[in-house]
């Protein structure tokens, strides 16, 4: 079952050829979520082969332009292509005031309900649900109010053992009760314990998005045990002081967080344009956390039900 992230943009404030502004697209079996929407995101969605038909919520981390300047054009395009399904945009307070004038200038009445949800995370907690996903938020430490997001599959029911269904000729009408915890009694009166009828469901998979932030040890507790961690790595560690001054992290610091969190795989991103290549970011992180990858635009990273480290 699908649970994967497409990197639509991996660069920082100033895009480079081949490295666009921040945007990620998470696809699950039942729904999709767009996280951040830098300039040109709608073109990157097309290049990646994604549409927004299953997207009910867009998550914006903070109100620096490289994380939301793509929204006015994207919203207008959705209107022109006939979207009617409601759309929510979650962000720190102030986003509506920044982009509403641009939408009004277009003089196009949106054919779908658009809701801005102001949210400034103060602690880790459940933010909302969409489809088969739960979305949690937590505070990051940047120059302005910034949210981190963790997206996790909802817990599934255990799986009934097909061989037991066949061997015991269990009627389909009994299966819902068995999945809810009931034992099964055969027609000759023998009771079969529930534990012999079910196999545990696969554990929910998860993905966390941490951009932009300075390094702080508490962040690891917010993303503890996450399967796929995206963490900004604007600079290499020889520029750690400048990173702190500008509210950013280094590849070294991202790897320290991933290791402390017990993450499955680390994706580095939000690279400064001073680095035409990011192989050194990957090497710096792998010295601390071997399962580290420098994000590449339009790459997809999946999380399988069994095992981790599923780079595509």
UniProtKB/TrEMBL annotation:
<keyword id="KW-0378">Hydrolase</keyword>
<dbReference type="Pfam" id="PF23023">
    <property type="entry name" value="Anti-Pycsar_Apyc1"/>
</dbReference>
<feature type="active site" description="Proton acceptor">
    <location>
        <position position="66"/>
    </location>
</feature>
<feature type="binding site">
    <location>
        <position position="66"/>
    </location>
    <ligand>
        <name>Zn(2+) 2</name>
    </ligand>
</feature>
<feature type="binding site">
    <location>
        <position position="142"/>
    </location>
    <ligand>
        <name>Zn(2+) 1</name>
    </ligand>
</feature>
<dbReference type="InterPro" id="IPR036866">
    <property type="entry name" value="RibonucZ/Hydroxyglut_hydro"/>
</dbReference>
<comment type="similarity">
    <text>Belongs to the RNase Z family.</text>
</comment>
<comment type="function">
    <text>Zinc phosphodiesterase, which displays some tRNA 3'-processing endonuclease activity. Probably involved in tRNA maturation, by removing a 3'-trailer from precursor tRNA.</text>
</comment>
<feature type="binding site">
    <location>
        <position position="212"/>
    </location>
    <ligand>
        <name>Zn(2+) 1</name>
    </ligand>
</feature>
<keyword id="KW-0540">Nuclease</keyword>
<dbReference type="GO" id="GO:0008270">
    <property type="term" value="F:zinc ion binding"/>
</dbReference>
<feature type="binding site">
    <location>
        <position position="62"/>
    </location>
    <ligand>
        <name>Zn(2+) 1</name>
    </ligand>
</feature>
<dbReference type="GO" id="GO:0042781">
    <property type="term" value="F:3'-tRNA processing endoribonuclease activity"/>
</dbReference>
<keyword id="KW-0479">Metal-binding</keyword>
<keyword id="KW-0862">Zinc</keyword>
<keyword id="KW-0819">tRNA processing</keyword>
<comment type="subunit">
    <text>Homodimer.</text>
</comment>
<feature type="binding site">
    <location>
        <position position="67"/>
    </location>
    <ligand>
        <name>Zn(2+) 2</name>
    </ligand>
</feature>
<protein>
    <recommendedName>
        <fullName>Ribonuclease Z</fullName>
        <ecNumber>3.1.26.11</ecNumber>
    </recommendedName>
</protein>
<keyword id="KW-0255">Endonuclease</keyword>
<feature type="binding site">
    <location>
        <position position="270"/>
    </location>
    <ligand>
        <name>Zn(2+) 2</name>
    </ligand>
</feature>
<dbReference type="InterPro" id="IPR001279">
    <property type="entry name" value="Metallo-B-lactamas"/>
</dbReference>
<feature type="domain" description="Metallo-beta-lactamase">
    <location>
        <begin position="204"/>
        <end position="271"/>
    </location>
</feature>
<feature type="binding site">
    <location>
        <position position="64"/>
    </location>
    <ligand>
        <name>Zn(2+) 1</name>
    </ligand>
</feature>
<feature type="binding site">
    <location>
        <position position="212"/>
    </location>
    <ligand>
        <name>Zn(2+) 2</name>
    </ligand>
</feature>
<dbReference type="InterPro" id="IPR013471">
    <property type="entry name" value="RNase_Z/BN"/>
</dbReference>
<dbReference type="Pfam" id="PF12706">
    <property type="entry name" value="Lactamase_B_2"/>
</dbReference>
């Amino acid at each position: 079952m699908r649970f994967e992230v497409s990197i639509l943009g991996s660069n920082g404030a100033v895009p480079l050829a081949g490295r666009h502004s921040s945007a990620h697209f998470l696809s699950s079996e039942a729904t999709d979520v767009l996280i951040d929407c830098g300039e040109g995101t709608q073109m990157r969605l097309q290049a990646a082969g994604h549409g927004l038909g299953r997207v009910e919520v867009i998550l914006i981390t903070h109100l620096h332009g490289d994380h939301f300047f793509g929204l006015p054009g994207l919203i207008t395009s959705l209107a022109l292509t006939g979207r009617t399904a409601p759309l929510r945009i979650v962000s720190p307070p102030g986003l509506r005031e920044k982009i509403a004038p641009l939408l009004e200038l277009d003089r196009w009445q949106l054919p779908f309900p658009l809701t801005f949800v102001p949210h400034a995370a103060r602690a880790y907690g459940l933010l909302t649900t969409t489809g088969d996903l739960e979305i949690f938020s937590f505070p990051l430490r940047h120059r302005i109010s910034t949210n981190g997001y963790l997206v996790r599959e909802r817990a599934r029911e255990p799986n009934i053992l097909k061989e037991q269904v066949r061997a015991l000729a269990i009627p389909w009408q009994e299966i819902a009760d068995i999945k809810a915890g009931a034992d099964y009694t055969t027609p000759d009166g023998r009771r079969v314990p529930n534990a012999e009828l079910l196999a545990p469901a696969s554990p929910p998979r998860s993905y966390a998005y941490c951009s932009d932030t300075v390094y702080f040890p508490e962040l690891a507790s917010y993303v503890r045990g996450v399967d796929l961690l995206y963490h900004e790595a604007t600079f290499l560690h020889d520029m750690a002081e400048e990173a702190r001054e500008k509210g950013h992290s280094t590849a070294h610091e991202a790897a320290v967080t991933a290791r402390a969190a017990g993450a499955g795989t680390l994706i580095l991103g939000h690279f400064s344009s001073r680095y035409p290549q990011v192989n050194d970011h990957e090497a710096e992180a792998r010295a601390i956390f071997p399962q580290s990858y420098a994000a590449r635009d339009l790459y997809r990273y999946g999380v399988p039900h069994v095992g981790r480290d599923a780079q595509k």
